[in-house]
Design brief:
mainly alpha
Length: 69
C-alpha cells in the first residue's frame, strides 16, 4: 500500500491554522528563552572551567616543587 501525499490545499490549510494559533508563538518564545539560558550556562561553565584549570595547574606546580626527586 502506497503512502498518500497530502494535497496542496490541505498543507496550506494546516499552515494557515498554525499561523493563526497563538500557542505556536508562545512555544517559540519559550524555545528562545530556553536557548538563551543554555547559552548563558555554557558561557558560565566555560569561565569556571578556565579558572579551575588554572587552580589545578598551580597546585600541580607547587606539589612538584616541594616533592623531592
Amino acid at each position: 500500500m502506497k503512502p498518500t501525499r497530502p494535497s496542496v490545499k490541505a498543507v496550506i490549510c494546516t499552515v494557515s491554522r498554525l499561523v493563526r494559533d497563538s500557542r505556536a508563538a508562545t512555544a517559540i518564545e519559550y524555545g528562545l528563552i530556553a536557548a538563551l539560558i543554555v547559552v548563558g550556562v555554557i558561557a558560565a561553565i566555560g569561565g569556571v572551567g578556565t579558572v579551575t584549570s588554572g587552580m589545578w595547574n598551580n597546585t600541580s606546580a607547587r606539589v612538584s616543587a616541594v616533592t623531592p626527586r
